[in-house]
Design a protein that fits this description.
Number of helices: 16
CATH topology of the domain at 4-61 and 71-200 and 214-229: Jelly Rolls
Strand content: 5-15%
Helix content: 40-55%
GO molecular function: double-stranded RNA binding; RNA transmembrane transporter activity
Organism: Regulus satrapa (Golden-crowned kinglet)
Subcellular location: Membrane
Strand order of the largest sheet: 9-16-11-14
Radius of gyration: 35 Å
CATH architecture of the domain at 4-61 and 71-200 and 214-229: Sandwich
Family: Belongs to the SID1 family.
CATH class of the domain at 4-61 and 71-200 and 214-229: Mainly Beta
Protein name: SIDT1 protein
């Protein structure tokens, strides 16, 4: 047992010109202070304390001295020309050494800090120091310091050594044996003279009496408990759990692929004259192929004797193989789009009241496929250039935390932050492995479909292309890369989560939501979907707005006004493009854009008030605009501090609205939902509901001060290693994976339906 001595001094003098000086000399160091003891705050405010109590650096017993012998010299001096009364009291501390799993209560104040000794038991490699208090204020600091004398236990020097946290009602610090060669450390408790660091009121620079005495007005009751942390075996179990959980998705996919292979093998006997299409794999149809447009098809359907670009073919053999992709410049999309007759054809077809898929899939499949492959290659380039600086930055953050010991930099859930190596919260990083594994699995599933589709097209007649949804996989590949990068960047954010790097966690979520909406629109509008360059440029604008919102979105009204105006105008412009199937050329004349919009609204709404020309699209766009305008008004009125999540909410609501519209219209058109997409839809809804439950279990918040954020910290709930937010990572990865599968399989029922029978909505 280590003995410690505490010195209490008190002086009735409030004369700051002639303070009483106390110097304590020990075997290992010298400790000095003055009475009145002065603390400084903001705006050079001063706080005077006439009662001071300090714990002297303890000395362990040696063979030359008895356990209770300590030689201490206390020198008292003052330069005052008059006598000053003071009181000096030296006491022996009975409970200086903290015990494992045993709570200890005590009181501290700015002029009477406390610190205690803790020694690691033989079988414990890591402990968690839990500190709680019933009162949020006064603001306090908890520090863990090595055995060095003198101990830094005052407000102005507590940050000079060791690891420290600010605290209101709760604090938790994980300490590892390897960080302290002596296998012991001091736990220091300091009360700050002001509360602004913990989120309290900021003192006025004008008011306040510098001679005011604060002896007993800022005391705080604290309770400290030191409990063993998890063992190394728990780390191994958690890693096995994380990888095996998502490897089960690979196993399930293999089972589905095997069953599908068996079903294909059973259907290989195809009657002569029938067609086999690759959708989820290969599906059969007993519908014979005719050389002319079927009877009853709508105006604008493609004649099977003509190519998708409008060029006539004398025989199928003269056309390049369906599965081949060439780099010939004559096949560029612009060669078709600039032809006047094709442009006129577009205007005629896309303004029809009832459109079918054949009307919007007229371009050469190889050219359109190349166009969508650009999404894949561009997102890889973006991911590399975005991720490398992010990784470098978060490594710098973690290094600063480790070197300075300032744990207020990062907003962890300190009650469930398990360090590994240089990482302070390895569990928050490990839980993102699901995004990477499931993103890679989705890429494999898309690759399998792509290969099956290519094989089917190489084996079958060219005219089989007139069946089902056009198979373009570029956007699916981009979605898989985006899911993997979301895991990488979320892990980077959780290396040191804070206010300035939260956009790392959300940037690719914007891209995922945007790519999903583009893919859903591309399904029945393959010829008029946005190019990769336009889409990624739009995402860049959104991310730029998110960064500006982080900087200016707190209290600047002008920013919210500008953003709300941009949001509403962008919604209107996009709605016009969607309603008129891309035939509304905003870029041709910016001056006349609004005049044309008014004229179009007049002709379609006022003159035909009873029924718009495109009723379904009008309903979707009215609801969509109401949702977006509501978001704009909400942001303008309430100005949420978490601007990145606010933008993400806009994207997600628009995606859900469009997906719901698509499924409703699909069912209205008497189309079916096959078992696999139906299962994926149900799984998506269930897993998203569970994931959102854990997402809203707030464990920290960088919108508040670090001390206030720690009030929300909670213990681990899964395997003693993962907290609620880690479970959110697991479930959200699975939910995004199922969401992608919904988009991938939603229209598998149309693989045997002619495109001139598939409606566009």
């Amino acid at each position: 047992q280590v003995d410690a001595v505490r010195v209490y001094v008190n002086s009735s003098s409030e004369n700051l010109r002639y303070p009483v000086l106390f110097v304590v000399r020990q075997q290992k160091g010298v400790l000095s202070w003055q009475v009145p003891l002065i603390f400084r705050g903001l705006y050079q405010r001063t706080y005077n304390y006439q009662e001071v109590s300090r714990t002297l650096c303890p000395s362990e017993p040696t063979p030359e001295t008895r356990p209770s012998d300590q030689i201490i010299f206390v020198d008292v001096a003052s330069m005052a020309p008059f006598n000053i009364a003071y009181e000096l009291l030296v006491t022996r501390l009975e409970n200086f050494q903290l015990e494992t799993n045993k709570a200890f209560n005590f009181t501290a104040s700015p002029s009477q800090p406390q610190y205690f000794l803790y020694k690691f038991p033989q079988d414990v490699d890591s402990v968690i120091i839990n500190v709680v208090s019933d009162a949020a204020y006064p603001c306090s600091v908890v520090s863990v310091q090595d055995i060095v004398c003198p101990v830094n236990d005052l407000d102005h020097n507590v940050e000079f050594n060791g690891v420290y946290q600010s605290m209101t009602k709760q604090a938790a610090i994980t300490v590892q044996r390897k960080d302290f060669p002596g296998e012991q450390f001091f736990v220091v408790f300091v009360i700050k003279p002001e509360d602004y660091a913990c989120g309290g009121s900021v003192p006025s620079s004008i008011h306040g009496n510098v001679n005011r005495t604060w002896n007993l007005q800022r005391t705080k009751n604290l309770q400290v408990t030191i409990v063993p942390s998890i063992k190394k075996t728990v780390y191994v179990q958690a890693m096995f759990f994380s990888f095996l959980s998502f490897l089960s998705f690979y196993l399930g996919s293999l089972v589905v692929a095997f069953v599908h292979y068996i079903s294909i093998d059973m259907e290989l006997t195809v009657p002569p004259g029938s067609v086999s299409i690759a959708g989820s794999g290969m599906m059969t149809s007993s519908r014979p192929i005719s050389a002319s447009t079927p009877e009853g098809s709508s105006y604008g359907a493609i004649d099977e004797s003509s190519s998708s670009g409008g060029r006539q073919l004398s025989s199928p053999e003269r056309r390049p193989p369906a599965g081949s992709d060439t780099d010939s410049s004559v096949e560029e999309e612009s060669d078709f789009d600039t032809m006047p007759e094709i442009e006129s054809d577009k205007n005629i077809i896309r303004t029809k009241v009832f459109l079918y898929l054949s009307d919007l899939s007229r371009k050469d499949r190889r050219i359109v496929s190349k166009k969508y492959k650009i999404y894949f290659w561009n997102i890889i380039t973006i991911a590399v250039f975005y991720a490398l600086p992010v990784i470098q930055l978060v490594i710098t953050y973690q290094t600063v935390v480790n070197v300075t010991g300032n744990q207020d930099i990062c907003y962890y859930n300190f009650l469930c932050a398990h360090p590994l190596g240089v990482l302070s919260a390895f569990n928050n990083i490990l839980s993102n492995v699901g995004h990477m594994m499931l993103g890679f699995l989705f890429l494999l599933i898309v690759l399998r479909r792509d290969i099956l589709h290519r094989r089917a097209m190489e084996m079958k007649d060219i005219y089989t292309l007139d069946y089902g949804i056009p198979k373009h996989f570029g956007l699916f590949y981009a979605m898989g890369i985006a899911l993997m990068m979301e895991g990488v960047l979320s892990a980077c954010y959780h290396v040191c989560p804070n206010y300035s790097n939260f956009q790392f966690d959300t940037s690719f979520m914007y891209m995922i939501a945007g790519l999903c909406m583009l893919k859903l629109y591309q399904t029945r509008h393959p010829d008029i979907n946005a190019s990769a360059y336009s889409a990624y440029a739009s995402f860049a604008v959104v991310i730029s707005l998110a960064v500006l919102g982080v900087v200016f979105g707190k209290n600047d009204t002008w920013f919210w006004v500008i953003f709300s105006v941009i949001h509403v105008l962008a919604s209107l412009a996009l709605s016009t493009q969607i309603y008129y199937m891309g035939r509304f050329k905003i870029g041709e004349c910016y001056v006349g854009m609004f005049r044309r919009a008014v004229m179009l609204l007049y002709t379609d709404c006022i003159q035909q008030c009873s029924r718009p020309m495109y009723m379904d699209r009008m309903v979707l766009l009215i609801v969509g605009n109401l949702v977006n305008w509501s978001f704009a008004i909400f942001g303008l009125v309430y100005r949420p501090r978490d601007f990145a999540s606010y933008i993400l909410g806009i994207f997600i609501c628009n995606l859900l609205l469009y997906l719901a519209f698509y499924i409703i219209m699909k069912l209205r058109s008497s189309e079916k939902l096959l078992p696999i997409p139906m299962f994926c839809i149900v799984a998506t809804a269930v897993v998203w509901a569970a994931a959102l439950y854990f997402f809203f279990q707030t464990l920290s918040s960088w919108e508040e001060t670090p001390a206030e954020s720690r009030e929300k910290n909670r213990p681990c709930i899964l395997l003693g290693f993962f907290d609620d937010h880690d479970v959110w990572h697991f479930l959200s990865a699975a939910a995004l994976f199922f969401s992608f599968l919904v988009l991938l399989t939603l229209d598998d029922d149309l693989d045997t339906v002619r495109r001139d029978k598939i409606p566009v909505f």
